[in-house]
Amino acid sequence: MPTGIRDVGSYLPGPPVPATFFFTEEELASPIASNPLFKAPATRHHVNGERAAEMIAAAARPMFERLGTEPAGSVDLLITNVMLPDHPITGSGAETADLLGCRPRWIIDLHNGGCASFGYMLKLADTMIASGAARTALLCNVQNGAGQFFAQPKVRKSPYAAVAGDGCGVAYLSAGGGSELLGASVIHAPEYARDLGLTGTRKYWAPGTEELMVSFPQDKLGDIIARGNRLVPEAVTDVCKQIGVATEDIDVLITNQPNKMFLANWRQALGVPEERHIDSFEEFGNLYTAGVPVTFDRALRAGAVSDGDLVVFAGFAHAGDMASAAAVRWCG
């Protein structure tokens, strides 16, 4: 039986946070702040004490209510991808299952994948469902680094900080039901994994007061931008070839939301009109791992996706060590 997406859900913590939380009006008008890579969205959301599992439960419960089912007994496979796991050893999967009252056969805390994780998780879940190892799956993407990491007093003055937002997106899959998953593509480029790291002189687990920050080597920034421009169209083109359509035939394109520059470059490379490429950046900022499912859920609720639409999800992760794309024929 083909794997299908039954429904999706999302959760955004707290009230919207304005760009002035990070910079003054004068700083926001500076040349660096106007750079397309760093231009701050109007608003974003920040976690305020929520655990990742609590964010997942807040996104998933309304979805299960719409489906008329309870999580207990309805989730064979639970996959989480959390930017900052509340417990670095056990991850968030078991806590999520406990909060939702389910006992999956499989709990996978998928730490890699980043902004490409949604397509990666779709392919993994499809593989397991096709093998008969599971019949249903709950995919959970949590970005919780903006309010905990990028909001640090010194870090929040970095040009990267104001771009990030927090949120959670979930998707429920089953065998033989929902909107059929037509194909998926995952690209690995492990040679680029070390091009993203933490600044600072101490290990992240070591005691100290130094604020750590995610950063890219400045001398590789041009290469990283080029990878990002290339990888998403490459993954989307691959999945379109799998299912025998041209990229121009995509009805709705849902990508991660790093900045306006990447969004414009991707749709231009793929021949997808702007109105068919959903843009949530100005409202939610860069939601990293949660960007694709949250953007899709909001597009559904806004009526931007119709029955019969060919929907393609895509993203690239970190400094370009992974990219993914997946296609579904949406049937509401």
Please, could you describe this protein's structure?
The chain is of the alpha+beta class and 332 residues long. It folds into 2 domains: 3-178, Peroxisomal Thiolase, Chain A, domain 1; 182-329, Thiolase/Chalcone synthase (Peroxisomal Thiolase, Chain A, domain 1). The chain contains 10 helices and 13 strands. Strands 5-4-6-7-1-8-13-12-11 form a 9-stranded mixed sheet. Strands 2-3 form a two-stranded antiparallel sheet. It has a two-stranded antiparallel sheet with strand order 9-10. The longest helix is centred in the last third of the chain and has 23 residues, at 221-243. It is globular, with a radius of gyration of 19 Å. The protein starts with a strand and ends with a strand. The model has no long low-confidence stretch (mean pLDDT 93).
Itemize the secondary structure elements and their pairings.
Layout: E1 3-11, E2 17-18, H1 25-28, H2 31-34, E3 43-44, H3 52-67, E4 77-82, H4 93-100, E5 106-109, H5 117-131, E6 136-143, H6 146-150, E7 167-175, E8 179-188, E9 197-199, E10 213-215, H7 221-243, E11 252-255, H8 260-270, H9 281-284, H10 291-301, E12 310-317, E13 322-329
Parallel strand pairs: 4-5, 4-6, 11-12
Antiparallel strand pairs: 1-7, 1-8, 2-3, 6-7, 8-13, 9-10, 12-13
Helix pairs in contact: 3-4, 7-8
